[in-house]
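User: Could you go from structure to sequence for me? I need the amino acid at each position, not a summary. Structure tokens:
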């Protein structure tokens, strides 16, 4: 388990990283983030590596980092700025990105290190959404992205196009 960046009062964002040492049951400081301190980064595992994306240290960023065997390396820059967004591994070769301060939705083809642009969500400010891969009985890839009344199910067709359904919040009577 690796924990990096974030907000550390009173100094603001930090570039420090800590890895959980299971043998000692404690956190050990490791190599810091190689670029500016950031909050709002997201991560997922792809090809046995940790892919860290986006974040903010003032402006939002397009950068990605790859963490493997205790070493950071630069990943492919995203086609749009992201921070406080949704990132989920779709399968062994693709990672999905959506939400954040901008409505761009895209997917990374990891073996090719190429970005696939997908249909944007209509909301331009979907900060800190939760997301997850759904088990669809038809075998289709679906991702739930949720933030209060802005909840969507993205259906990925052959990993090259996307359609989404806006889920309406249930209203309850007092």
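Assistant: Here is the amino acid at each position, in order:
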């Amino acid at each position: 388990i690796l924990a990096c960046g974030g907000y550390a009062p009173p100094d603001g964002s930090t570039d420090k990283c800590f890895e959980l040492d299971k043998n000692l049951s404690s956190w050990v400081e490791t190599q810091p983030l190689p670029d500016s301190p950031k909050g709002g980064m997201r991560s997922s595992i792809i090809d046995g590596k940790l892919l860290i994306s986006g974040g903010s240290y003032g402006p939002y960023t397009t950068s990605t980092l790859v963490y493997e065997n205790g070493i950071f390396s630069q990943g492919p820059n995203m086609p749009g700025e992201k921070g406080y967004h949704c990132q989920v591994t779709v399968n062994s070769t693709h990672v999905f990105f959506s939400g954040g301060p901008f409505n761009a939705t895209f997917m990374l083809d990891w073996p090719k290190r190429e970005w696939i642009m997908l249909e944007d969500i209509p909301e331009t400010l979907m900060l800190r959404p939760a997301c997850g891969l759904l088990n669809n009985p038809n075998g289709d890839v679906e991702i739930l992205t949720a933030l209060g009344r802005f909840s969507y199910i993205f259906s990925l067709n052959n990993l090259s196009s996307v359609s989404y359904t806006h889920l309406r919040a249930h209203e309850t009577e007092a």
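One structural detail worth keeping in mind: The longest strand covers residues 150-157.
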